[in-house]
Input
Amino acid sequence: MKDCNSIREQFGLLLYGELSFDDEERVESHLDACEECRTALQREKAVHAAFDGIEVSPSPSLLRECREDLRIHLLEEAAMPRPQQAGWWEKFVDAITLRPSAGLLRPAGALTLVAMGFAAARMLPDATFKGNVAGLVPGAARVRYVEPASDGKIQIVLDETRQRIISGNVDDKQIQSLLLTAAKDPSDPGLRAETVDILNTRAQSADVRDALIKAVQEDLNAGVRMKAMDGLKPFAQDAAVRAALTQVLLKDSNPGMRTQAIDLLTKGATVDRQIVGTLQELMLRGEQQGYVRERCRRVLESMNASLETY
Amino acid sequence: MALKSGLQMDETALIRAAQDGDHAAFEQLVRAYDQSVLRLAMNLLRSPEDAHDVYQEAFLRVYRNLHSFRFDCSFHTWLYRIVTNLCLDHMRKRKVRKEEPTVLATNDGPLDRMDAVPEDRVDGDPQRHLFSGQVRRRIKEVLGELTPRERMVFELRHYQGLRLRRIGEVLGTTEEAAKNCLFRATQKMRAALGDFI
Output
């Protein structure tokens, strides 16, 4: 009976498939020889089935409400300044703390640690460790939330606002990477416009051009979109740029943007016949902007294309 | 296997895009997990209002901290760490304050607030008829008597189907500790339900 009790204690884990091979073997062997325990196992299975009967699923209306409220919270959140994204400094910290995400930088990080330790020992013989909170400047950080950690300590998450000046040539990879990030900063259209202005001088780079294409199609501010269009003008024959300009022509609500787009798409003595379908669609939709409508009509006539269907 | 690795690659790309500020990518990430997050919170807290709060707070924390996610663990594990911590906090506060009981005393006898919420099983399911109201109430009482950690491990194993190793990762403990927790939970429930089944 004592053996039976110890076997029955294992039924829960047995039904979840979480017993070790040896333990499961011991239970199975016992069950082969003990009818009472086989009956007890059936009762245990009934208990399991009973648990299933009380599971609840969230109603579709609750899920919908949660999603809608989250959307609003995220919009509010996006309007607030955000912590910086992982850049070279964070990657450097990853490397010297030997985190797996540092990848190939880990050996370099290890060497850096050794070198730093050597230098510190030589130069700072009296240096003492002051703890994680010693370097905090009051007012430079905002406590976002606090929670007790499993080891009994308190974990505090801070939003830190630290300004740092970095200067370098616009062709410098790090500078360019920061500019590409700033060009997407949702909270500051002025920053995006200035950044796009600078990036326009380097539109021959594919990465920069991709950022300008994204800006011309997706930026919420018409001024930023206009500046991005300026940067793309010299590349109006590039297939990706033409595709973006076509989208602008069809979808942008700003008449100035559509006017510039049609000029760029129909520039030159020979007009790409692929644009015909787009122009016909504009005519069919009853394009409201006079210049765009007239330009469409003239181009279609010059190509002997129908004003309605191609 | 090919499909799985394809999905993982998609998720990695989504996370990286969201880290770069792509709101559509973040929304896709939310949509991929939010139903299971809400279900977990609802089953643990047995209150639509609390489940709603946990949902909001969990995804806002993800949004605020996604830039620091370094792929040291799976996104699922990282997200569940956030959600389970929030749920544990709720359960602990509830234990201390003894407020918002899920089973209310009324003139007509005990009433579970979650009885108004539809359950997974359809009405025509014959298995459902085997569970009397008395058994269902007793199960809910017993679940409420477990410690928050036991309740969490039981929820993750029984209803969410996570293996103990994964549960250990999510809760920041060992597989062995999670196993002990599940063992205690099942022992308590067997003892409490023995007369009913």
Q: What stands out?
A: Helices of chain B lie at 2-19, 23-45, 48-65, 75-97, 133-145, 148-159, 164-171, 175-193. Strands of chain B lie at 103-106, 109-112. The longest helix of chain B spans residues 23-45. The two ends of chain B are 41 Å apart (CA to CA).
